[in-house]
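Q: Sequence in, structure out?
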Amino acid sequence: MIEVLLVDDHAVVREGYRRLLELQDDIRVVAEAATAEDALLLWKQWQPAVIVVDLSLPGIGGIELIQRLRAREPRVRCLVFSMHGDDVWVAQALKAGALGYVTKRSAPAVLVAAVRDVHRGRRVLSPDLAGHADRDDPAHELTPREFEVLRQLLAGHPVARIAKTLHLSVKTVHNLHYQIKAKLGTASDFELARLAWQRGWVDQPGGDPSGGALIG
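A: Exactly. Output:
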């Protein structure tokens, strides 16, 4: 029996794919979480074989969650199930340690098969991701931690809040902010925000696009 932990902040979505997975004779959903923080606690309690993770979570995002789980247990097997089909999101999730990536546009059978493949230790991507790689995208230069800091900065979160959420010092967040701008070739927070929104690296524009929210 493949025991699964579902991590998604939308209860209706979780209910839908919980029902789908539990129709299978070899899969059992042992727990559900709406936040990364809850997922970490439930993972410790249940030690499930597979963790199905959405990337757009409140607070700590899915990429950061995968990275933390892998740091605690390198053998943990994470499958991303996300609305994001952009190559950058896929690349960042895989760099963080995800073993598979399935978009929410996929047919139900694709998700079921991916859970089984990830449980066997196989790398899997949903068919709609084939041929969409864009290695010229500058965000490939970012580490998963830098990508998570960028995501939170563009959501308008103050540096102090980001530091607390990610268990970093304020100085470290400022340093990461500088490194992100340097890697992406942006001279200002306004350029950084515009580039991120144009490229689809953030879920929704947040804060002041002039850059005020980024350096608060």
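The radius of gyration is 17 Å.
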